[in-house]
């Protein structure tokens, strides 16, 4: 029983880490896009939109990869 409970705690910790990782990745990409817009495109938000979408896609890719690893 203790081993099963210990395994579920590890699984919840891994899932929590995935959520934090996803948030950090998206935040960094948004900040990078914002900085690029300030430097090279002060009139628009092109880089912010592009880098936000890349950050979301990349973080979703990592989430799927890590959850598949957890389920195997």
How would you describe this structure to a colleague?
With 72 residues, the chain is mainly alpha-helical. It contains two helices and no strands. It is elongated, with a radius of gyration of 17 Å.
List keywords for this structure.
0% strand, 2 helices, mainly alpha
What proportion of the residues is helical, as a percent range?
over 70%
Q: Mind summarizing the main beta sheet?
A: none
Q: Treating each run of at least 4 consecutive H or I residues as one helix, how many helices?
A: 2
Tertiary shape: elongated
Number of strands: 0
Cα-atom Rg, whole angstroms? 17 Å
The ordered string of helix (H) and strand (E) elements is HH
Provide the residue-averaged pLDDT. 90
Structural class, judged by helices and strands? mainly alpha
Percent of residues in beta strands: under 5%
Rounded to the nearest angstrom, the distance between the terminal CA atoms is 21 Å
- Spans of at least 5 consecutive residues with low confidence: none
Helices and strands in order:
Elements: H1 2-40, H2 46-71
In brief:
This protein is mainly alpha-helical.
């Amino acid at each position: 029983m203790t081993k099963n409970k210990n395994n579920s705690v590890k699984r919840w910790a891994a899932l929590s880490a995935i959520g934090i990782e996803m948030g950090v990745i998206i935040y960094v990409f948004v900040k990078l896009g914002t900085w690029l817009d300030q430097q090279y495109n002060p009139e628009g938000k092109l880089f912010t939109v592009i880098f936000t979408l890349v950050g979301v896609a990349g973080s979703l890719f990592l989430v799927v990869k890590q959850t598949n690893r957890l389920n195997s």
